[in-house]
C-alpha cells in the first residue's frame, strides 16, 4: 500500500472529479470509485496493480466502486472475419453460463479436497515437551458493528445480551467455535461439524422429492498421507477429539490443549449497551435444500444442468456471512411468532479475554495465531444477526509465553511471570504458513503467503471489512407472490466470493 492524499474538484457541469496525489509527487485521477466531497484533503492508502489504482482506503474504509450493474464479459467484434468473432459458439455459451444473478448474505470458502495431516508426536498430549509452548493470548475485541449474543431467557419483553454475575461477556464457547472454524479453514482441516441428514428438494415442476445421498456423501476429502493411520489434522491436534461411533479414525480420543475464557465488556464500554428494544429484520432465507446455492455447480448456471443432492457433487464448503453496512437491520413491526426484541452491545464497545494454551508446537501455535490475529482491514463475525450485518468484530492479540527452562525448576513459574512475546507473533505464524504451503506446493515456492492461495483469496474477500460488497448483491433473494416477485424461479447458482464487489 502507498500513502497518498485525495483532492476533490468540480467540473463546469458541477460534477465531481477526484485526483490522488502520491507521496512521490505523482498525481493520478481515479474514476471508477464513488466520489464524495467529504474526502477532499483526506490522507489515504492506495493499492496499484499494473500502475492502475485498484483500491483506496480512507480512515480504515475502502472507497466503494461505482456499480455499473453490468457483467464483464468479452465483447464480440462483428467486424472480424465473417462478420463475427473467432470465438467459438461453445465459449460464447460459457460466457452466458458465467452470468450469475443469485445473491445471499452468505457465501462459501471452497471445500478443500485434501486434508493436510499433522504427524506431531502423539505423546505431546500427556507430558511436557521441551519444545512445547505454554502461555496465553490476551485478546481485545472491538465491535465494528453492533453485536448480540443472547441469554437463554428473555428479560420481560426483550432478550438481553449474555450476562452472568452482572457482567456482560462474550462466552468462551462462542469464541472457541469461531476460532476452531478459522483454524479448520486455514490449515486445510477436515470438514467435521455438520448434520449428516437426508434432505429433500423441489423439482422444477415444484414437486418435493427425497434424495438418496446424505450431506456427508457430498463431502469428499482425503488425508494428504493415508499410509500412516495415526495421522490427524491440525484442528484435531489443537482442540482435541472424541471418539465417534462411526469414526474411521484409529487414534484414541484426547483432550483439548487450548482454553477460551469469557471476554468481558470493559468498564469504559458499559455505556455501549443499547437502552431501547430493537427488532431485527425477520430472517428467512434459503436452506441447504437450495442445492443451486449449497452445492458446487462448477461454474454452470443453466437451470437444466444444475446438480442436486442425488448427483455426484460436492458441497460448496464452509459457510460464512458477509460484512455489511447497517442501514436497514431494524424494523418497527413486530411479529410475536417470528421476531425477537433485543438489546445489543453497540459499535465501538470493547471486550477483553484470554486464550490459554498448553504444550503447543510452533506450528500449532502458529495456526492458532493465524486464526486470531488477522491482517489489517479483516474482521471476524460472531453472534446473532450475522445476515443483517451484526457481529463484525476486530481482535487484537498479545502473546505471553512461559519460560521453557524455568518451568521445570519452579513449581509456580508456569503461569506467573510470563514474558510478553507479541513481537514473535509474525514469525510463529510464518512457521505455520510454511508448513501448509510446503504441503500444498511440494516446496516449489509457488505461493509466498497462504493468503495468495486461490482458496484463501475467497476467504479473504469475505473477511475484508474495509471493502464490503454492494449491499444489493449480498441480501436475501425476494419472494412476494402479491407483487408477483420471485427471484428464486430461475434457480441461479451463487457466484464465488471474489466475483462479488
Quick synopsis:
The protein has helices spanning 89-97, 172-186, 234-239, 291-294, 362-372, 406-409, 425-441, 454-463, and strands at residues 2-10, 16-22, 27-29, 43-49, 52-58, 61-62, 106-110, 114-115, 117-118, 133-143, 163-164, 167-170, 200-202, 208-210, 222-223, 232-233, 258-260, 263-265, 279-280, 317-321, 330-331, 350-360, 380-381, 392-401, 419-420, 479-480, 485-486.
Structure overview:
The chain is α+β, with helices and mostly antiparallel strands and 501 residues long. Among the domains are: 2-62; 108-199 and 209-285 and 332-451, no CATH class. It is built from eight helices and 27 strands. Strands 10, 11, 12, 17, 18, 22, 23, 24 and 25 form a nine-stranded antiparallel β-sheet that branches. A six-stranded antiparallel β-sheet has the order 3-2-1-4-5-6, with no helix packed on it. It has a two-stranded antiparallel ribbon with strand order 7-20. β13 and β14 (208-210) form a beta hairpin. The longest helix has 17 residues, at 425-441. The protein is globular.
Write the layout of secondary structure elements.
Blueprint: E1 2-10, E2 16-22, E3 27-29, E4 43-49, E5 52-58, E6 61-62, H1 89-97, E7 106-110, E8 114-115, E9 117-118, E10 133-143, E11 163-164, E12 167-170, H2 172-186, E13 200-202, E14 208-210, E15 222-223, E16 232-233, H3 234-239, E17 258-260, E18 263-265, E19 279-280, H4 291-294, E20 317-321, E21 330-331, E22 350-360, H5 362-372, E23 380-381, E24 392-401, H6 406-409, E25 419-420, H7 425-441, H8 454-463, E26 479-480, E27 485-486
Parallel strand pairs: 8-15
Antiparallel strand pairs: 1-2, 1-4, 2-3, 4-5, 5-6, 7-20, 9-16, 10-22, 10-24, 11-12, 12-18, 13-14, 17-22, 18-22, 19-21, 23-24, 24-25, 26-27
